Amino acid sequence: MNTVVSESFILPVILCGGSGTRLWPLSRSGFPKQFLVLSDDGSHQSLFQQAIERIHSVGGKDITLGKTLVVTNEEHRFLALDQLRELKDVQATLLLEPTGKNTAPALTLAALYAQDSSENQEHPILVVTPADQTITNPAAFTKALQSAIAIAKEGAIAILGITPSSPQTGYGYIKVKGDAVNDAYTVERFVEKPNEATAKQYLEEGGYFWNGGMFVLKASVWLAALKEFRPDIFGATETAWVARTTDQTDQATFVRPDKAIFNTIPSESIDYAVIEKCPGSKYPIKMVELDAGWNDLGAWDAVWQVGQQDQDGNVTSGDTLITNSKNSLVHASTRLVSAVGVENLIIVETADAVLVADRKNSQDVKHIVNQLESQKREEKNLHRKVARPWGWYDSVDEGERFKVKRIQVKPGASLSLQMHHHRAEHWIVVKGTAEITNGDQVILLTENQSTYIPQGQTHRLANPGKTPLEIIEVQSGSYLGEDDIVRFEDTYGRS
To answer: Quick one: pLDDT band at residue 365, thresholds 50, 70, 90?
Structure first.
């Protein structure tokens, strides 16, 4: 008698809501660390792209992959979409949170989608991972994930436990009991972030693993457990989901839960809401050990640790020159950065900010971000060069009553039909063809041609060509803030 092995149907779930403040000034709220290329593995992929590719590596004979579910926020939806377009054979649905409510509501959105989607099997398995981690041994990750999927298929919750390499105080720990059976440990309990002495004790005793926030479980199991342990989160999220709206782009689907209802959901993590309550309950939880060079890149010191170090322990990126220096990270974004006679430093340069920090204090970068926020400084949120769904702009100069921008518009893309109360604009085409709406007039301009947009005039910039359009924009007026925009029509749903 032949044995038929049924397939496991999985949905990758990428939790993409973090802000990565400890990696400022490279990571900012408008362009957080998951969208950055930080690991030196030769792929030139962002952490977000790597997370998707890692999960897709498990597809095969007995595992069928469904659509990738990306849980992110409205502000980052086009960053995610642009990076998804660079991945081959990845179809995605973007579940857009109107505001961050931690990971439990985020996973609940994914589970509700999985439950409601007609394409899915009766009990789809969710493979859940943050978007901002790195792995240096993909083969070991794939093997561990396959074991976790087999556990979840039987109805248990599987968590990947990171093999600890040092007594870290920044991670929660998983305590297991007994030996592994078929790669699975029984989880005894979860432990909060310990002090250094306790962390050392955990490593000496054994049986403790770092909690990296990666879970594999059936959507139905998550919803049932959440309904039992946190019915308030379940009820509010389900109500917001029922009232959702959906729209489609050329490659992805945007799904938006009801904003007003979603804002009432209690903010809670996956661990606190459900996972830590599972040991000893009717929801069995197992752990699969992951020894794959995992790092959550939680601070610049971690980026240094996983980087390609030279003979003196230095990690460099961009246009850098270093002499007589050791164990330092130097990152140059826009200009030459040199270091002489330094040791154990973090030096990060961007177009509008420079960070210099002792490596051992790199966690404290968050205090600088807090100061930026309290002073309402734009360097907390945006780089000088800002990504937009239609392309990007770079504010190259600014002074009293004027600002100069370099703007690039993607082929076939357009800015919104808009007007400004406080400023006028001069546009000079330096590359490509521009279709310009200026009041009632629509004109085409090519290289070295220009036009003037008076204050209060309705206007739009579009690229009708097949190559990128670049213009120089000179603004003049009494107020030049980005919020002086009144949108009448917008391709990207911002009007």
So the answer is: very high
Residue 44 lies in a domain: yes
Same domain, 315 and 263: no
- Which H or E run includes 311? none
| Domain final position from 322, 347, 373 | 373
Tell me the Cα Rg of the chain. 25
Whether residue 391 contacts residue 40, with contact meaning beta carbons closer than 8 Å, is answered with: no
Spatial separation of the C-alpha atoms in residues 284 and 300, rounded to whole Å: 37
6 and 64 Cβ atoms separated by less than 8 Å: no
User: Same structural domain for residues 214 and 276?
Assistant: yes
Clarify whether residues 278 and 357 are in a common domain.
no
Answer yes or no: is pLDDT of 4 > 80. Answer: no
Tell whether 131 and 37 lie within a shared domain: yes
The CA distance from 94 to 225, in Å, is 24
Is there a contact between 69 and 113 (Cβ–Cβ < 8 Å)?
A: yes
Range of the domain at 438: 385-489
Beta-strand ranges (E) seen in 89-191 are 92-97, 125-130, 157-162, 173-181, 184-191
Q: What is the 3-state secondary structure (H, E, C) of 272-302?
A: HHCHHHCCCCCCCEEEEEECCCCECCCCHHH
Q: Does residue 120 share a domain with residue 166?
A: yes
| Strand partners for 356 | 347
Residues 364, 170: Cα–Cα separation, whole Å: 13
Distances from the Cα of 121 to the Cαs of 10, 151, 168, 474, in angstroms? 9, 18, 40, 55
346 and 456 share one domain = no
> What's the number of domains the chain is made of?
3
String of DSSP letters for 190-216: EEPPP-HHHHHHHHHH--EEEEEEEEE
- In CATH, what number is assigned to the domain containing residue 444? 2.60.120.10
CB < 8 Å & 24+ apart, contacts of 196-200: 196/167, 196/169, 199/167, 199/168, 199/169, 199/173, 200/167
Phi, psi of 267 (to 5 degrees): -85, 120
Residue 81 lies in a domain: yes
Tokens matching residue 398 = 């600014």
Residue 118: how many other CB atoms lie within 10 Å? 4
- Asked whether residue 28 falls in the same domain as residue 163, the answer is yes
Using one digit for the tens of pLDDT, what is the confidence trace for 60-112? 778 888 889 999 998 898 899 889 988 888 889 999 999 999 999 999 999 99
CATH code where residue 169 lies: 3.90.550.10
